[in-house]
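Priority: low. Protein: Neuronal cell adhesion molecule. Input follows.
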Amino acid sequence: MMKKMSIPTSKTSLVLFLCQIISALEVPLDLSQPPTITQQSPKDYIVDPRENIVIQCEAKGKPPPSFSWTRNGTHFDIDKDAQVTMKPNSGTLVINIMNGGKAEAYEGVYQCTARNERGAAISNNIVIRPSRSPLWTKEKLEPNHVREGDSLVLHCRPPVGLPPPIIFWMDNAFQRLPQSERVSQGLNGDLYFSNVQPEDTREDYICYARFNHTQTIQQKQPISVKVFSMDSLNDTIAANLSDTDIYGAKPVTERQPVLLTPTGSTSTKVELRGNVLLLECIAAGLPTPVIRWIKEGGELPANRTFFENFKKTLKIIDVSEADSGNYKCTARNTLGSVHHVISVTVKAAPYWITAPRNLVLSPGEDGTLICRANGNPKPSISWLANGVPIAIAPEDPSRKVDGDTIIFSHVQERSSAVYQCNASNEYGYLLANAFVNVLAEPPRILTPANKLYQVIADSPALLDCAYFGSPKPEIEWFKGVKGSILRGNEYVFHDNGTLEIPVAQKNSAGTYTCVARNELGKIQNEVHLEIKDPTMIIKQPEYKVIQRYGQASFECIIKHDSTLLPTVTWLKDNDELPDDERFLVGKDNLTIMNVTDKDDGTYTCIVNTTLDSVSASAVLTVVARPNPPFDLELTGQLERSVELSWIPGDENNSPITNFVIEYEDALHEPGVWHYQTEVPGTQTTVQLKLSPYVNYSFRVIAVNKIGRSQPSEPSEQYLTKSASPDENPANVQGIGSEPDNLVITWEPLKGFQSNGPGLQYKVSWRQKDVDDEWTSVIVANVSKYIVSGTPTFVPYEVKVQALNDLGYAPEPSEVIGHSGEDLPMVAPGNVQVHVINSTLAKVHWDPVPLKTVRGHLQGYKVYYWKVQSLSRRSRRHVEKKILTFRGNKTFGMLPGLEPYSSYKLNVRVVNGKGEGPASPDKVFKTPEGVPSSPSFLKITNPTLDSLTLEWGSPTHPNGVLTSYTLKFQPINNTHELGPLVEIRIPANESSLILKNLNYSTRYKFYFNAQTSVGSGSQITEEAVTIMDEVQPLYPRIRNVTTAAAETYANISWEYEGPDHANFYVEYGVAGSKEDWKKEIVNGSRSFFVLKGLTPGTAYKVRVGAEGLSGFRSAEDVFETGPAMASRQVDIATQGWFIGLMCAVALLILILLIVCFIRRNKGGKYPVKEKEDAHADPEIQPMKEDDGTFGEYSDAEDHKPLKKGSRTPSDRTVKKEDSDDSLVDYGEGVNGQFNEDGSFIGQYSGKKEKEPAEGNESSEAPSPVNAMNSFV
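Result:
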């Protein structure tokens, strides 16, 4: 069975592993060998006198060694001392102190000897000393009276203990005394004051000594210190001296540095190699001196130099001879400096260069023991054999001593022994045991058979072959069952038998055989090597900058060998993650919820397997708004300025970009903060300009990229002195509100602008261009003053000056105002109208005299309205339109007139008060224009060769109709048009029978009307002659009619053709090239409601049937109603309606009560049913023949149809009533004219549609309109 071994991949682990293999190369314990000391107590062994003393001495050997001890150089017979015992199979001594023994009785130098038949090994000299913690000697401590600024040293002088105690200073409350550059503890335990201050006065300076071995603390008596300040000292002297005495302590004076320790200018220091060198300089002086260290002629050793005790102590660890030299400390303050040079000499106790190592030799072999050591001074070398000086040891012809080397030649089994090498000088000694063991043994391989090694690819592989034999065997390595011996640069063969493959590849895997042979025999062993894929982090965590309370996520995605089980560990700053539920560790990520400032740091993902380890780190920076500034301070207070300084708060990892300074005026606006100024983020002081008579407080806000900090605490208040105002009110105006007054208004000064108490205003006025004196009045802190009894609309000079209790503001500037306006007195004269065309006219008038305007001339308004149409005598509601012409204009254009109509107009002048009287009405007429399209065109009575056409006259004739023009042409099955035929029809005709047409042919008709001016727009329709006298089967859609409202339109039609046709409606904006929009009609209904239309827009519409190629109706055009200013009020929400309903409900309730009473009395209350007899005449049932709703009519059958009702008769395409749109001239709602009278706006008022004219019968309305009519 293979034993598995994983070889670590790091270089450090590899070296340690190799060293372990080398150190494990020892004599097997089943073979004879001399003793070897394996464990012993330290040379200087300080013991606790209250506990048993244990002196260790352990050794191994074959046969097992016996032990003996010496004490102070003589044999220590433990059998004679009942307090001393030796552990079984061990040389360790146990001295029983806890049962009556005294540790002081066993002080001395002890040495252990381990012996068997092949030699004797000895331990170091172990010096046993019990620890001591003596009490402080009693002494009388006088109080220390010291002058402020002087230096002081409080001596500790602890008792001498073993080992030396640890010193610290505390007070009566067991609190450590604070230390600083001024006050600190020296290496000797004394407390040094470079200069004393009044706060140093106290009576409980206590020095404590802690003895760690005995875990006791000794306390010195408290020391009292009283510091006298100069003022109190002068008062004391003055009270005790006469007037004639000269007295007076000098004030605290600054002093240049003086060294308190060490004294003098030079000193020396000796330290041993490997120890810690501590050098100290403590100085007195005022101000407190600063200490600086240098090494003369060299540099302080990097990585080993540290400064402690506020740089008063220089610490160099692990010193060597190279650290010898002169070290200079300099104490400096503003008055001077002092220095001290310490000459350091580094001595060295002996240390090994080559320690002797055990020798295993076979009979007849040669060998050497080498013992080389160094030190300062140079140590002496002496040899012992089995614990006896070699000079007096038994002779051995095979050995020869040559200084630090023993040479062995042709050894025999009796040459086995233990040799000791002792290297010593005045600072210590080294003692090493090394045996010579003479054996004759065939080879042994100590590594277990079939051991399995696993390594990561491209890492070193170390295959162990621990062996033993005497003589020393030779080692060879083979790969595979029949492999050749391994040689070459790709392998490294170590002396301990280990085979190293420096860079193991996949092909390095396999079985390796180790062969060990000497003259006494041969042995081999097999081991096995597996190569694994390395573990990699393929997605490493990345640097994150996260706002406070945000979420941070680090990824750590790995790839590893499938046979290895990885473990992922997350660290923060090389330590475990905090125990916090905000840290969520996933399979391949780490998420931190609600990050806080303490989450800042480096996060490391570590992936471990049994063979390798990889890691990756990323830094998390938590940013936030800055902390508020603090310690606001006002300095340099002047009447109009002050300097503000502050200390910035923590910027929270996002640099502060600027500071915003705000102020509060507690006198005028307490609690209200105003912006003052801002400064860059590198600036912490600012000079602020101030206003008089303001009680200022300031606060500072820090700003970074994340946002603004909370405001700082307010600064102290600063009240500036009062002064007269610096400025006057702004925005002064003089405007009359009545014909006989002048209202003077201004913007009052703000509180801080008043500059002092008693703010008032001096208001002055006089009539312009009249030699009048100024009239003035002083008013309180208000914003207007009314001057009464003024002439109507005359100019005034006005000024307003601020004043307070300390005086007036500078002289204010004057402004021109006017007293109140009155309505204009006269109307414009000589109004003339010039008709330009049928829709446009130009109006002229004479301007009114400016004196009669009695105000600011704003312009002229032209009121005009249509009286009647000249083509028909019908009248309608008169709607006046208004055009406004700004300024002193005397003409304007009237757009959007209706042709062949009679109009009236008048003109009025306008000022700020309103309109003047109207001019006399002026009548004018517009000439004829082209007519609108015929109101409908329907085609009936189709035969084999004829069709009957009927039409309605144009809704807007715009003149006297002269004739109609009919054009038509055939359409074949491919929708190609045939020759066009034109027919002129007299104006008084309303129908025509077309004969001699082709049977079963579709025709397209174009029909329009003419006046003397020209032809109007045309209407189109299509019809088909029949194939024979039976009802034609060719499907068609006819009589498409529309009823439009503001945002929707009802479309209805008639269909002839096969049953179960599926209809659709197509529509679009008239005149637009956009694609038709298509709506599917649900079922086989013959009406559809188009919704979502734009108010006041002309649309085109047509109806088609699905599945019938090219089969659709002719186009119709309609226009939606204009946008209404407001919606009709819902009657159900009106108060009067609700009240009425409540009254009706009450009456019904009373009626029911009366009925109930009469019924109970046996009476009868007959109720006659009349619902059928009184059906609503305005609602008729749906006709069964065509599926349309029944007709609705007014009391008179032939009144013109209202807008939105359907046209009568079959096959009509009804045009919507259309007023020609008024070209937007003047300022109706928003319109106006340019200077030349051209129109750039639109007229005011909504257009009203004229009713349809002609002898047209009313046909059933569409469902929507029928319901609207019912409502």
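The chain has a mean pLDDT of 84. The two ends are 104 Å apart (CA to CA).
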